[in-house]
Amino acid sequence: MVDMLPNQAAIETEAEILKNPFTIATSGPGYGLDAPNLGIILAHKSFLVFAVVVAVMSISLTVRYTMREESAGYSELFRSTALNRHVGNLSAFLIVTGFNLVIWHHFYGLAEP
């Protein structure tokens, strides 16, 4: 990254690119782009990759917690009791939502605007 942005003029040009509407729609508004440096540019460029990784992890966790019940036979046990037939999907949803809330709080809940 240092080789790609060797001087302050290149960093400021990259900051202007990060202010276009598509980048704002995918990565959010640019914080710190009024006085850009290499760290700010790197943080903005890595956000989209991080969002894709979290989405893939969420999908993997959902598949894991729903298919594991199905293959182990837990879903038949749930359906034979007084529980609702959607309890397996609800538990997977709650686990993945809790996971995403922990990640959000870790990265954004403690940050000051």
Helices and strands in order:
Elements: H1 8-17, H2 21-27, H3 38-72, H4 74-79, H5 87-109
Strand content: under 5%
Find the structural class using helix and strand composition: mainly alpha
Shape: rod-shaped
Distance between the termini: 26 Å
Poorly predicted regions: none
Number of strands: 0
**Mean pLDDT value:** 82
Description:
- This protein is mainly α and 113 residues long.
- It has one domain.
- It contains five helices and no strands.
- Helix 3 runs antiparallel to helix 5.
- The longest helix is centred in the middle third of the chain and has 35 residues.
- It is rod-shaped and about 65 Å long.
- The two termini are 26 Å apart.
- The relative contact order is 0.08.
- The mean pLDDT is 82.
Overview in brief:
Helix content is 72%, strand content 0%. By secondary structure, it is mostly helical. Helix 3 runs antiparallel to helix 5 (87-109).
What tags apply to this protein structure?
113 residues, mainly alpha, rod-shaped
